[in-house]
Amino acid sequence: MSELKNDRFLKALMREPVDMTPVWMMRQAGRYLPEYRATREKAGSFMDLCMNAELACEVTIQPLERYALDAAILFSDILTIPDAMGLQLRFAQGEVPKFDKPICSAADVKALGVPDPEGELQYVMNAVRTIRKELDGRVPLIGFSGSPWTLATYMVEGGSTKEFGKVKGMMFDDPHTMHTLLDTLAQSVTSYLNAQIAAGAQAVMIFDTWGGVLTPRDYKEFSLRYMQQIASGLTRENDGRKVPVVLFSKGAAGWLEAMAATDCDALGVDWTLDLGDARARVGDKVALQGNMDPSILYAKPERIEQEVQTILASYGQGNGHVFNLGHGIHQHIDPENVSVFIDAVHKHSKQYHQ
After folding, report:
1. Residue 66 neighbours by CB distance under 10 Å
2. Which of 259, 300, 307 is CA-nearest to residue 282?
3. 82 phi, psi to nearest 5 deg
4. Are the C-beta atoms of residues 231 and 148 closer than 8 Å to each other?
5. In angstroms, rounded to a whole number, what is the distance separating the alpha carbons of residues 306 and 340?
6. Are 245 and 204 in contact (CB under 8 A)?
7. What counts of helices (H) and strands (E) characterise the chain?
8. So where are the chain's domains?
């Protein structure tokens, strides 16, 4: 593998000194970019785009051609694992995920197996290998997966939901079945991420999009416990470098300390928490990634730059900060505003690393 030309993202995750704060964006390869929309149309369907290594590589690289980003993230979807388990994923109008065979019973859970990452999910590994080759050491590549709890919500609900009635009903009424499902998913995610690392991912991130819908008690039992299980089973060194692990639970500001006590290297933080407060709470246990409200990118350039400065000042002097949005970029953001954001991070962060 070629030598890394820009490793400040990996250094920041390991809380090592950097010259400026690294920055990337969740969903940086996405619908806000006209070039992405063109490639997506060429692919035919969203899953066809994910399953074509060359096209997945093309859209992964697109934002790096526009912006001075410090990392690339694999273009894929968090629902690849349940699809590989036979739930038959499709995307309805507006890219809304649906499963034709949702989990409805204990028997459905029992029938699930752990997918082979170089079998049913080989298309993801092919994309990782293709992207790493194309990047040629330009920036690190991030691999990722959904968390067991988040995957379970889609699998039991059959798609997106606002009530979480079916999945929480199973959790409260039949916790044994829910734990069986989550354990199978934890094994699957561990295997999947380790295969991504072997294929060339240089950091991995676990997206727990729906952890914040749980009570503190249930979050620890049904979400955090399984992310800890995954983190403990991941390959932490490859290609002569450490492979950092990032956990991100949206809406989980109240449980930062418990998250920091896992085997992760960094925590993603959404915009509902002051970053300086988050840093005070976790101390030097983990690095922090975040946490600008994506909606700021609808504002005027001077307001975007001001927000970047506010967040940098909130984190303060020293290492261990990766600048990011608090969640994925919205599809209707003006790409020019992203330039303002990325450039402002690099321009204003140097003073915090002297």
Report:
1. 15
2. 259
3. -60, -35
4. no
5. 11
6. yes
7. 16, 11
8. 8-353
Q: Which residue(s) pair with 142 in the sheet?
A: 73, 203
Sign of CA dihedral 224, 265, 230, 325: positive
Q: Cα-Cα-Cα-Cα dihedral of 2, 126, 26, 42, to 10°?
A: 120
* pLDDT tens digits in sequence order for the chain, 354 residues long: 568 999 999 999 999 999 999 999 999 999 999 999 999 999 998 999 999 999 999 999 999 999 999 999 999 999 999 999 999 998 877 778 999 999 999 999 999 999 999 999 999 999 999 999 999 999 999 999 999 999 999 999 999 999 999 999 999 999 999 999 999 999 999 999 999 999 999 999 999 999 999 999 999 999 999 999 999 999 999 989 999 999 999 998 999 999 999 999 999 999 999 999 999 999 999 999 999 999 999 999 999 999 999 999 999 999 999 999 999 999 999 999 999 999 999 999 999 998
For 180-206, give one letter per residue: b (16+ CB within 10 A) or e: ebbebbbbbbbbbbbbbbbbbbbbbbb
Q: Closest Cα partner for 167 from 249, 112, 222?
A: 222
Cβ atoms 248, 207 nearer than 8 A:
yes
What is the pTM for the complete model shown?
Answer: 0.97
Question: Which is nearest to 14 in space by CA: 322, 280, 311, 314?
Answer: 322
Sign of the C-alpha dihedral computed for residues 178, 181, 187 and 193 taken in this order = negative
**How many CA atoms, within 13 angstroms, populate the side-chain half-sphere of residue 168?**
13
Residue with tokens 């920041």: 12
CATH topology of domain 8-353: TIM Barrel (3.20.20)
| Alpha carbon separation from 258 to 119, 151, 203, 213, 217 (Å, rounded) | 35, 21, 21, 16, 11
Number of neighbours of residue 84 by Cβ within 10 angstroms: 22
Radius of gyration over every alpha carbon of the chain, rounded to an integer in angstroms: 19
By annotation, the residues acting in catalysis are 27, 31, 40, 77, 154
For 241, the 3-state DSSP assignment is: strand
| Encoded amino acid at 246, one letter | V
Tokens for 214, please give them.
């749980």
Among positive and negative, which fits the CA dihedral 154, 118, 140, 189? positive
